[in-house]
Amino acid sequence: MKEQTEVGKLKEGRYVVVEDEPCRIVSIATSKPGKHGAAKSRIDCIGIFDGVKRSIVQPVSAKTYVPIVERKMAQVISIAGTTVQLMDVKDFEMFELDVTEEQVAGLEPGKEIPYISSLGKKKLE
Prior knowledge:
Layout: E1 2-6, E2 15-18, E3 21-30, E4 40-47, E5 53-59, E6 63-67, E7 70-80, E8 83-88, E9 94-98, H1 101-105, E10 112-118, E11 121-124
Antiparallel strand pairs: 1-6, 2-3, 3-4, 4-5, 7-8, 7-10, 8-9, 10-11
């Protein structure tokens, strides 16, 4: 799910959709309007799920999408290597996530852990 908003209303630390990937805004630089043009805004951001740095340059009045990022709780059902099977605490949805070795070390079946969900993708916090 995503909402539409103007580029000029975005702030650092918030989220924006770039190349169909939800990203957290790292910095925003806005130029003054020129003789024949509108003010432009350069937004540098990092992908929430892939960690890739992206940047976009758009007029301040242009429309862009803001993802709806939800923080939820899930219960660990089972652990198989680096794949963890989880169940959402509220709606009982079952899903699997691939995690790192360090994250697996802190998990055990029955434990509740927080995760992030946005645009159909999920990851542990």
